[in-house]
Model the fold of this input.
Amino acid sequence: MSQVTRTERVKASLFLLIGLVVTGAVVLILRQEFFKPPRTYFLRFTDSVSGLEEGAPVRYKGVKYGKVGKIRVDESDLETITVELLLDENAPITNTTIAEIASSTIVSSAHIELSGNLRMSERLKEGRDIPTSTSTIQDLLATGETLAEKLPEFVVDAQQLVVDAQQLIKNLAQWADK
Done:
């Protein structure tokens, strides 16, 4: 049996200690670099946010910078929906940034699209509201809902127009026979 000398134990302990210190330093550096907490911003919508789900991507001009956090009805104003955004630290959010609910195609799920960032604008402080606008798809859906609401009235008017046209034709036929 070989005996381990005191010098060998000290060297092994020192090697282990240095290895732990280096591993700890690497973990701390990686944690700071890759596990930065997200920056939180808020959106407030008075229209429907249908199709938007928690975890949906948030993009700035098509580049992903985060995700949608919680979506909830604002307790102080039940007509308002509050959407929490969890964004990367380097997301270009300024006081001119505008958010809208968007979709790549009519059948794809919704996401948040950010735009309107001017070069000379100040960075928006974390925790603030980002102004919102309606998207083209939302405008089309709203128009479709309005058209659907007006459809019964249109059908009644069209039926009356047909009845009036039939009466006019009948009167013209009677006048022509005289």
About this structure: The longest strand covers residues 63-73. The helical segments are 6-34, 136-177. The radius of gyration is 32 Å. DSSP finds two helices and six strands in the chain.
